[in-house]
Design brief:
Length: 315
């Protein structure tokens, strides 16, 4: 038991324990039926939350008040842009992905420029931006019937030995994000700003540039997520990113990142994303109604955050 104490002390471990618990509860209810398929489906769906969750994690790590509420609108617009650029043509897949990436990055950059130019809190700036983006998306993507190129749709749903290829690539991406956070000047600057913005500035950190890059990164990840979602679900729509507003924040907090800033946990984003997907699967399997499902989801999330020491971080 003593050997487990150092592991249990890590905030992100609780998200994985939560995911394991709901998976075991579900397969116990089904008598073990579909256990492997449940894991594959969870990995497939968790990928999209992890991608935007990493971007949100970097933003939240900048310190109190930093959050990107434009992600759902960003995802919706980028998915429409990607599908229109690709136009069902496999030869345009790379161009479409770059277009989605550029769209998201432009939105992220615009978010920070609003914060900087108008001197308004990020929560207000990004929420205001989301309404503008939604208006653009409605006029640009409403009624869009373009399907993704066959090769792109196949890639988004491709599995090797039951493991989604997108999940493998996202794991590699998160490893890179962890290295950037802990080993690169940019990542250390983000942590320093979150711990004490004035001290970081006095130490020579270009606070404005780092914040600009971080919001741009979050936007770019939202953009690429929109393109991948359109490929996975074989089409784009205005509401495709709606569920990723609260989900992107929840996976950051449940995963062990401090909402006070200055402390991030990349592995926990994966554990939290799997937890949320498996939790929804469990409640659906139990036949829980939509209202009760939302209530139980909230209560369980609060429980996991409390177990991980989240209440201390929120004080």
């Amino acid at each position: 038991m003593a050997a487990l104490k150092p592991l249990l002390a890590k905030p992100w471990i609780w998200s994985f324990l939560g995911a394991l618990s709901v998976w075991l509860a579900t397969i116990a209810f089904t008598g073990g039926y579909g256990a492997g398929g449940m894991v594959t489906a969870a990995l497939s769906l968790a990928v999209f939350t992890v991608i935007v969750g990493i971007g949100q994690m970097f933003v939240i790590t900048l310190g109190p008040g930093n959050v990107d509420l434009s992600l759902p609108a960003n995802i919706g617009l980028a998915s429409a842009v990607a599908m229109k650029v690709m136009d069902g043509n496999d030869a345009m897949i790379v161009v479409g992905l770059l277009a989605a990436l550029a769209t998201g990055a432009a939105i992220g950059a615009a978010n920070y420029l609003l914060i900087w130019a108008l001197r308004i809190p990020p929560i207000i700036a990004t929420l205001s931006a989301s309404f503008i983006i939604q208006s653009i998306d409605i006029s640009y993507g409403r009624g869009l019937q373009i399907k993704p190129p066959p090769g792109f749709a196949d890639f988004a749903n491709w599995q090797v030995l039951g493991i989604p290829v997108l999940a493998i690539l996202t794991v590699l991406f998160t490893i890179g994000a962890a290295i950037a956070l802990q080993r690169m000047v940019y990542g250390r600057s983000v942590l320093a700003i979150g711990q004490n913005i004035r001290a970081a500035w006095l130490a020579g950190v270009n606070v404005g540039r780092i914040r600009f890059l971080t919001y741009t990164l979050s936007g770019a990840l939202g953009g690429i997520d929109g393109a991948l979602l359109a490929g996975y679900f074989r089409g784009a729509n205005v509401d495709i990113g709606n569920e990723y507003l609260l989900a992107s924040i929840a996976v950051v907090v449940i995963g062990g990142t401090s909402v006070a800033g200055g402390k991030a946990n990349v592995p926990g984003v994966w554990g939290a994303a799997l937890f949320l997907v498996l939790l929804l699967t469990m409640l659906n399997t139990f036949g829980v109604s939509a209202g009760v499902r939302l209530l139980l989801t909230g209560l369980i999330i609060v429980g996991v955050i409390t177990a991980a020491g989240g209440q201390k971080a929120l004080r």
